[in-house]
Amino acid sequence: MNIEDFGLDYIVCECFDVTLGEIIDSIKAGNNTLETLMYDTDAGTACKLCQSKEMDEDKDRSLHLTTILEHFNRQNG
After folding, report:
1. Residue range(s) defining the domain that contains residue 69
2. What is the gyration radius of the CA atoms in the chain, in angstroms?
3. pLDDT at res. 77
4. For the whole model, what pTM was predicted?
5. Spatial distance between the Cα atoms of 54 and 51, rounded to a whole number of angstroms
6. 21-75, pLDDT tens digit by residue?
7. Are the C-beta atoms of 53 and 64 separated by less than 8 Å?
8. 68 contacts 43 by C-beta, under 8 angstroms
9. How many domains is the chain built from?
10. 48/15 Cα distance (integer angstroms)
11. If you average pLDDT over residues 6-12, what whole number do you get?
12. What are residue 58's phi and psi, to 5 degrees?
């Protein structure tokens, strides 16, 4: 799946109800590393499953913070 396949209201982080739109806004505001993105949004700071595919061993999440960051960092290259 591509990021474009998800709506802006898609919940990326279920622990803190952080949406894809909030993640994108944070990246556009300059939080383009996993650490700064997590600090700004709290996403990925509780159970950590939404951080990356590697952290999500049971594949509970469809979209991960690292995937979103890679997408935007590629675009802004």
Report:
1. 3-75
2. 11
3. 65
4. 0.93
5. 8
6. 999 999 999 999 999 999 999 999 999 999 999 999 899 899 999 999 999 988 8
7. yes
8. no
9. 1
10. 9
11. 97
12. -90, 5
71 Cβ partners below 8 Å, 6+ apart? 3
Give the max Cα distance, the chain: 31
Whose CA is closest to 34, among 14, 17, 12?
A: 12
Six token digits for residue 31? 């939080």
Q: Which residue has the tokens 């990356």?
A: 52
- How far is the C-alpha of 33 from the C-alpha of 69, rounded, in Å? 7
Six-digit token string for 77:
């290259």
Helix locations, 17-64, DSSP H: 20-28, 34-41
Between CA 25 and CA 58 the distance in angstroms is 28
Tokens 């894809």 appear where?
A: 20
Which DSSP state fits 55? T
